[in-house]
Structure formats: structure tokens, C-alpha cells
Amino acid sequence: MSDTELQRSESFMATETDSGMASDAAIVRRDEEIFQEMKSRETDFTFKIMCVGDYTGFGKKGGFVSDYIHRRPLSFYHKPTIGVDFYLNFITWSDQTTNQDFTVKLQFWDVAEHERFLKMTSVFCRNCVGALVFWGPKSPSPLGSVLKWGEKIKEANPKDANIPLVLIIENIPTSKRGKPVDWIGPGKLIENKVLLDEFCARNGFVGWFQLVSREEDGYTGVMTRAVDCLVQNIFKQRNLRKP
User: Fold this and answer.
1) Chain CA centroid to CA 172, Å
2) What element of type H or E holds 88?
């Protein structure tokens, strides 16, 4: 069990509105009120977290983050990312070693994977403290393609050599009756999980998590553990404490 655990989460997503009977104007007013309240909320730390990766063959990176924030099943409607989208989440992080509680604002930056936006990636990645890197066995890009995103983050932050990365492998079946791609094993994309662990450790990834199901634990539960892992390593590597 880790020294830290996620206790409470509050959220606001800047790019999506709820469906329902409320008018668009009412939704806009509500979101603006929430956003203004959150901007003024005092926090101990603000973490800028990048969401990067090539197209996984299924979903939108920001959609996965949004569903994690709102603790909901897999959503199929998400507007395409043009340039960058932003998502906010507020958590209380409890450090059991120091018995300190921290209020943390997580800023998720979902960067479009389209070629014409790649030149802006270095600009978007400046001053980030961690990243979720998405890849999937259905993707036309090989697993090694995730390395370029780590390099872009390093290039954007030359004075910060230890920015933790978490690899998220999107392997959700495209239909309810479908099965995840069997991609780990002899003769497959990677021989075994040990080699995947070594690949991650060698290239700055502090962990990897696989999305394999539309159900709660196989989807938002995995996303929660992935973000938990990233936040834990941000605190650990930066040795963060209250003044």
C-alpha cells in the first residue's frame, strides 16, 4: 500500500456540458459560476498534467479523463480536440507519512494528436509536472511511438529532468460483445509483462495501466488508479510539503 491515498474529489470540466432539460444558456451560466468559484478556491498546489498520445483506435483522451472525473461509464460522445482542451479536478491528497492533507488542483491538458498541432506541443507542455501518455494495441502506431511524447515534454522543460509519466493502454472492445486485443505473449506485440515493466522503467514511465472494459472497475477505476499513481510520484519526486 502506498504512503498516500486519494480521499476526495471535486471536478469541473471546461469543455463539456451535461445533457438534459436545462437550456444551453442555463448550462453556460452554471458552468461559469462553478468555474469562477473554483478559480478563487485556495489550494496548496496546482499540478499541470498533460494528456498526450497518438490516436488509440477508439476513444478521445479527454473523454477518458472526463469520464474519470465524473465517475461515469464510458461515454461515446465527445467533441474532437482542436489544439488543446482543458479539464479541472480538485482533490484532497492525504500523506500518511507526514499526516498532512493537501488540496490539489489538477489541470489536465488534452493535446490534439493531429499532425498540424504537433508543433505547438512544446508550448503546451511547458511547466507541466506530469503526463498521461495514451497508446493502444489497435493503434496504427507501435508501442515505441510513446517515447516521442516523453521527449517533447523533456524538450519543453529542460530544467526539469524527472517529470513522471504514466502509460495508459486503451484496449476497450469496440462493441459490447467484443474482447480486448490479446497483445501480450510469445509472438505478440510484446513477449510478457516483465518486458513491458522494463520498457516503462527505462523510459521514465512510473507505471502502466490498461483499459480493458466499459465497466466501472475496468474503466474509470483504472483511470483513477493511473492518476493516483501519477500524483503520488509527483509528490514523491518533488518532496512537496506544506510551508
Assistant:
1) 16
2) strand 84-95
